[in-house]
Amino acid sequence: MSVYGKLNETDLSEQARLIGGREQSMRYLVQLSRSTPALSDTERSPENERFGCEARVWMTVNYTAEGRLQLGVDSEARIVKALLLIIASALDGATRAQVAAYDLDAHLQRVGLGAFLTASRRNGLRSVVQAIKER
Description:
Pfam families: SufE. The protein is mainly alpha-helical.
């Protein structure tokens, strides 16, 4: 079972290419955040708000009848939203087994973001992944 959710090596290589080095990664993350629609006002409800990140985070977590995760993510902070979208790229559409096996730290390292994140931001993302796994 892959620790990268539903992503394969080709997907990971493409993410790493797009993310690039530190300066390029920040531009990519801001662009990713801007180009992805926000959750609706209904989805940005108190029930869907997740705590543990420095910025406000909302997340919708549902499973289809086929057992595939449907994941929606949003944040007030562009960089946090983009990092959530990178997690969603691995987990949206994943099976429960793929979600359970997902390793955030391995994913971030593989795509070149591991060295750029503060401990606080990484811990916030870990709490989001844990909340997804508990659903």
